[in-house]
Amino acid sequence: MKKIPVLLMGCGGVGRHLLQHIVSCRSLHAKMGVQLRVVGVCDSKSLVAPMDVLKEELNDELLSEVFRIKSTGSSLSKLGSLEKGGYRVFNDSELSRETEEIAKLLGKSAGLAVVDCSASMETIEILLKAVDLGCCVVLANKKPLTSTLEHYDKLALHPRFIRHESTVGAGLPVIASLNRIISSGDPVHRIVGSLSGTLGYVMSELEDGKPLSQVVQAAKTLGYTEPDPRDDLSGMDVARKGLILARLLGNRIIMDSIKIESLYPEEMGPGLMSVDDFLHNGIVKLDQNIEERVKRASSNGCVLRYVCVIEGSSVQVGIREVPKDSPLGRLRGSDNIVEIYSRCYKEQPLVIQGAGAGNDTTAAGVLADIIDLQDLFH
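RESULT FIELD:
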């Protein structure tokens, strides 16, 4: 049985579902000759780990308890530090030190997959140290790959040890497909994608004549948006995904190089207007402009889509008119779609489409990335 030690950083929606997938897939992985040993789970405040990470692991009963605790919004510190339970809980000042210690112990011996399912910039230093120690890194967190070029270069220096499929398109094989095209020597000259399930839903609902304010309220009720919908409407999440794809193509660009169209003006930003004020008084002022753009697009035989366009070293993110009968125009709901144009896919692009959002789907993509690293473990 090939054993893969796993250290998970981040127990939000994606991290919790990853633990659930690991437990539910035990028999499947056993048939594949693989066992995932979870040797550490941490949130922003605490780390829970077995007494001896070289010989022991967190059992499935404890992983299920972690899922339950985090589902209530509580910290892992709620588990307490019970040696008789076979695990320890480290808090605050101990967190970074003990996480690095696990990487040191396992990185050069049995190997370790450090999995980042957080949404934090604070994991970058730990990830860089893990790579230096010979660990593998699996990312759902986009921020390490959209940080400075110096950080990006250090993470991308050993591509065989890094997996980040779930940073773009959740579980869709966007990164893998793009890597295969690049490896074949087929030059990619253009990528167009609807990379936000939230904005995809908003744009497709606008086609039916609904006002933007009503659509965003509905999306928030359905759980499609962040607690503050402006986190989605700003376009920043799409820009991060575009930057990841552009850097994968070899472009040496930073976030400031990307032209981003926000769906709300600066005066309605989080620092100037509360969430409630924005939803009840601010966003309704945007309805008329969007309605006019929808009608204008319709008169041209088009629909509006919030897209990312990568062409050469240029990355642009914003609303565009696309033909109704195009793959982007036919997109409905919260699906993602990516069109890749290259020498081989010149007239008819390679189109990748499917569910591009959701904790369950994203966690499944992360799990597949971990299993894909199995050849690097004893």
